[in-house]
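Revision sheet: structure tokens.
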Amino acid sequence: GESADHHGCGQIHSFCCLYYPGLLFQGTGIAVGYTGASLLTSYVAYLSPWMPAWLWVAVGMILMLGVGITATSTVGAIATLAPKPRAFKICLSLLLLMVVTEIVATTIVYQKQHALSQALGDFMGESMERTQADYGEKESDTQLWDEIQMEMNCCGTISYKDWFTTTFGNGTDVPDSCCLMVEPGCGKDIANVVDPEDEVITEGCFPTVLHAIGLDYHTLSRGVWLPVCAMHVALMVLLIATSMFLQESYTAGNLRIYSVSAVLPATTHKYQALDNTF
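Predicted:
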């Protein structure tokens, strides 16, 4: 009995070794969620009229993956302290599924990044031209363009001259949000100004926004996403190897206890029956 209790305590202590990798998984899950949230707030939601539906789906999946990894690893870490081996195995299986999905998706995006970039650019260009034509007529498009042009320091889709062909531009004007010094009427008659770069921003919003997205993509992928993926692979290998070792140790321990109990002498009567023959 004492040997079995000692063995059980040892198993609990050893099983807790899985707790700390679980904590690391929580941190990496938060990093994945941060990546999705950063893309959502910086571009997808911010430039929603110009963003394709598949990008919304992709960012939503990243957020769900981050939440899933964080929640599952938290439950798994708690299961190691309980200890609840069966619950931990379920969490480990879910984490393995999410990590495999993450790696496969990362590989596909890496292989298709140029095609995805082209598709994003084509959709954005068409959307920007369409909303630019509605400037001054639709309040939502007007507010969007004014906000983007002032914050991103750009003007028009490809260049400031794009405004001249719109109904609002009337051949000569640009929105006041294009001006270097924004004030009412500052965008009037820009087509006749000798040095327009002294009055308005001449670079278009399409190349500016695409360049910003590209920079953030490389920063997040190299600084956050790829290191997190590598850490996930290492942690999964560690968790699986440790859990298999503990399972084998637990099975071997049970076998030893069973073997010892099998060779112990059977309980005998303290007193033997007296022979009745005299």
